[in-house]
Amino acid sequence: MTQTVNHFALFPLYAAGGTALLVLVLELAFGRFVLPAGIAGGLVTIGGAVALGLRPASTFCGAEHCSWVSGPQAAVVAVLFAALTIGVLALSAPALRAGIAPAGEFCFLLVSSMAGGVVIAYAGDLITLIVGLETLTLPLYVLVGLRRFAPRERVTTTGASAAVTFFLVSVISTAIALLGAALLFASTGMLHLAVLTGGSGPLAPLGAVGAALLVIGFAFKVAAVPLHAWAPATYDGSPVPVAAYLSTASKLGGVVALAAIVQRLDTGPLVAVLAVLTMTVGNLVALRQTRTVRLLAWSSVAQAGYILAALAVGSAGVPAAIAYAVFFVVLEFVAFAVVVALRGPDADGGELADLRGLGRRQPWLGAALVLALAGLAGLPPGLAGLFAKVTVVAALINAGWGWLAAVVALNALIALAYYVRVAALLYTRPEPVGVHFADLPAPEPATTGSTVTAVADPELLQAATHPRVPVPRPVAAAVAVAVTVTVVLGFAPQWIFDALLG
Amino acid sequence: MTPYRDYVTSGGSLAQVLLIAVLAVPALGALVVALLPARIDRGARIVAMVFAAVTFVLTALLAMPNADYGWFAYGDQPPALLPWIDVSASWVPSLGVDFHLGVDGISYPLVVLTGLLTLLCCAYTVGKVPDGGRGRTLAALLLVLEVGILGTFLALDLVLFFIFFEVVLLPMYAVIAGWGGPDRRRAARKFVLYTLFGSLLLLLGVFTVVIAAGTGDLMALTGGTGLSRTVQCTAFALFAVAFAVKAPLWPLHTWLPDAHTEAPTVGSVILAGVLLKMGTYGLIRVGVGVAPLGAAWAAPVLGVLAVAAILVGSLVCLRQTELKRLIAYSSVGHMGFVLLGIATLTATGLQAALVGNVAHGVITGLLFFLAGAIKDRAHTGALADLGGLRETAPRLAGLLAFASIASLGLPGLAGFWGEAFAVVAATERGGPLWITLAVLAAIGGALTAAYFLRLLRRVTHGPASPAVAGFAGITRPEWLAWSPLVLLALAIGLVPALVLAATADPVAALTGALP
Questions:
Q1: Could you identify which of A41, A69, A128, B22 might form a hypothetical disulfide with A123, taking C-beta atoms 3.0 to 4.6 angstroms apart as the criterion?
Q2: Burial status of residue A105 (CB atoms within 10 A of its CB: 0-12, 13-18, 19 or more)
């Protein structure tokens, strides 16, 4: 049996996969140009996804159903994966230039992961979906631990241990998801997403177990409580740009996979329980965090809870969940990008206390972080985040799940407590160290020379100990573009809703 | 879209431009002021004042197209809410959000009051910047606050109303946390968490209504058309708690004294003057307007809580030892009168609430300006340390006495109408419950007089204490900021029609929809 393959439908995947190969060859042949090639390849992927979005096409079709289906949602998701990859490449540029990670391998792995994301976006059956998810995740195990140490630098194992944690949990979750897919196939004989059902007759319980296992397997990927324990340790142990990718693109992959399941199988109660646990635990634990990336990690756990809440409704909640995910990844990316810009290429996320007073020294970056945090909290000026929350609450009330909407609202209140703490910290004056020159008693002429007093002016000392690090151009560009997108989406959220509806 | 479009004289395109400009000018001003370089801080504050002045003029001009307007000319069944001017554009159709603004007799006085108080605060900021941060940032935040407050008063779409309601949260947090007193962080955090709690209930209420009715347009929704009794009761319960946090209504008021005590003077003025009014305005426009059956159902509870607020507020004030805290608690009592007026659900009560709202904004704004001036000069707000102000600063003492007497509701000054007619409305409502409430509220009014007279005795009379010795005279920016409020307190007291002139029809339309 031969199949006709529609190569136009596969163009985004060709672009993503081709970019990965190109990067590998460039690294071997020249040892440079990898970063521009990766970014250019990402742009071509975006172009392909947009073109395919305008003229939808499917391929790998059986008698009735296709395994590669394009639609408006697929286009949005594919564009987002490629854009996030470009953004993370830009954020990593200074670290790659400084040789902290090997540039060729880094770019190859990240672009491969992007190819996995593109597969998820267009997946039309369960196997393609899981293969896409694995292609998305596999390179990340390496990226999490990929770090070179300078000759005299202290070698730490945090990256390696984060990678191992991530690897083990991820493999187990994939095994569970595959088992679920197998049980579902055994009970219904269907794998295409378009005709996925829970099974009927004596095999119905088997199908229900299969659906539940699929949800649990994918819930690992979005770090839903109680399957979340890997996330904070992994985020905090990996380089900050990779953590940015993990909490945006990787999470988006999980959300799209979950959305494909919940809109066709009856998993509402399970997802609702996961949602309530995820947002509540995520927010409560985030209250107690003292490290920047850990706080963002726990907050992103909580944010996944809001997405799960919309998914619990079933097919009616899917557009709201995807829309929320789109707004969320943009805001989350801004937050991580600002952390990268503030911390420099070779530092980890650091303590929250390190952010103290940064908004006064770096007003633009401070404003960008405040915008992102306000958006994550769902408040103006982060209008994008406000619309995201409104979308989820509206979808829940519309479906008659008022109690879950109330839980979401309550959690938004808890969340504000820590977002506002971080935002306020940015504008807190630094701890006073030393003595103001003006406060010193005027030296008496008779005794000068005989005593030497060591004094330090707090502002001079602050300026000396916290030099204003210039933000590398690619990082600045990534922050600027992401902030622009956030602001535009805040005023014109309808573009996302239109794009998702096609 | 809305089925009532035919009835609306939109006021012509010039008026619509005016309406948009009322929001656009302060927003632009905030952006410009924030982007001006740090070295011309004072210049930036003057620019902010100019933007605030332009906005104030624009808000005042909103009444112009009203000259030859009468809604009864438009047929048998006019909508219960008919704005003088309105502008509508689709914003986020997926969520049913229209960018629909409009102004009518109920919102107009509050809009002008917002414009005025922001202008006065910006002018005050030109002369004096509280410690904590840059003056131009404070001025920019004041303009952002103005956008949020004006937007809330002008919004004619429920979701838009909610969005503007949220806009003020973080800027006000920043004003308190950035320029406030020693315990500012805790107070600011308490403020933002309490008010967000209110906002989130509002969000739930808004979507309960929007989804049940299929539209968020207040013109279509006012009167409770198309909503079942259950939906109205649920929605009103959510709205009532949401707005009760903002207003604030006892027992949800505990954020208010802390926020006021720690906030800088201009923050307190905006907070007491207009921010609290978003709660009472929302209760009238959204609560009573959209869910009249729910309002009727919950009115007794609201009335009891309002009277409790009056009594608790005045009793707590009798024991207060700190100047700003006392004025803050007096707000709880005064807003209790406003809420009692609303709870009666009679035309008299609603009008009393509207005039009480504006009067409280004017008088308490003035009181906070004066308290700030006294604290700045004496470096203490403790009543025990102040005393004999009359000896060292007779003008300041005179103004404080004027504002206190206006606040305690002396006939002829602005405070009188709202309080007296809230009590009258409760008596009119009749029945044992409302008569009891009226009597208790009247006793609360007497207690109000008691604590304000106590305040005057402690602060202005007696021998001069060391803290008030050597007070500087009232500076020019201070006169500039205060005199309009003094005049308004007098003018509204003598001619309450200034506020009430255009409210008769909208209030009649609101009460007409009640069961």
A1: A128
A2: middle
Best probe of the B interface among A390, A404, A410, A491, by most B CBs < 10 A, is A390
For residue B102, give the 3-state DSSP assignment: strand
- CA A67 from chain centre, in angstroms, equals 26
State the average pLDDT over residues B266-285: 89
Q: CA distances (Å), A493 to each of A388, A484, A498, B152, in order?
A: 9, 13, 9, 21
Q: pLDDT confidence of A245, banded at 50, 70, 90?
A: very high
Question: Are A34 and A40 in contact, with CB atoms under 8 Å apart?
Answer: no
Radius of gyration (C-alpha) of chain B in whole angstroms: 22
Helix (H, G, I), strand (E, B), or coil: what is residue A121?
helix
Cα→Cα distances A298→A161, A229, A282, A415, B35, Å: 19, 10, 5, 10, 34
Largest interatomic CA distance in chain A:
105
Q: What is the pLDDT of residue B223?
A: 76
Give the pLDDT of residue B479.
84
DSSP-derived secondary structure for A210-253: HHHHHHHHHHHHTT-TTS-THHHHHHHHS-HHHHHHIIIIIHHH
pLDDT, tens digit, 9 for 90 and up, residues B198-233:
999 999 999 988 888 888 888 888 877 778 888 888
Amino acid at A306: Y
| Cα distances (angstroms) measured from residue B258 to each of A420, B261, B322 | 18, 5, 12
**Which residue's structure tokens are 């997405």?**
A307
CB pair distance less than 8 Å for A380 and B189: no
Structure tokens at B17: 């431009």
- Which of A 323-382 lie inside 8 A of B, CB atoms? 374, 379-381
- Does residue B77 carry a pLDDT above 90? no
The pLDDT of residue B212 = 86
Choice among A226-235, B76-85, B166-175 with the minimum mean pLDDT: B76-85
CB B154 within 8 A of CB B194: no
Å between A384 CA and nearest CA of chain B: 12
Which residue on chain B is closest to A392 by alpha carbon? B95
CA A500/CA A496 separation, integer angstroms? 6
pLDDT for B72: 42
All residues of chain A having their beta carbon less than 8 Å from the beta carbon of residue B170 are 374, 379-381, 420, 423
- Return the biggest CA–CA distance within chain B: 69
Residue A436's pLDDT is 57
What is the least distance, in Å, from the CA of A421 to any CA of chain B? Answer: 8
User: What is the predicted pLDDT for the residue at B26?
Assistant: 92
Most B CBs within 10 A among A397, A408, A418, hence the mutation to make, goes to A397
Q: What is the pLDDT of residues A260-291, one digit of tens each?
A: 888 888 888 899 999 999 999 999 999 988 88
pLDDT of res. A1: 55
Of A383, A394, A416, the CB nearest to B207: A394
With 70 as the cut, is the pLDDT of residue B59 above it?
yes
pLDDT category, B254, cuts 50, 70, 90? Answer: confident
**Which residue of chain B is at minimal alpha-carbon distance from A386?**
B163
Q: Which residues contact residue A36 at a Cβ distance below 8 angstroms, ignoring those fewer than 6 apart?
A: none
Radius of gyration of chain A (CA): 24
* Spatial separation of the C-alpha atoms in residues A156 and A379, rounded to whole Å: 39
* CA dihedral of residues B367, B368, B369, B374 (deg, nearest 10): 90
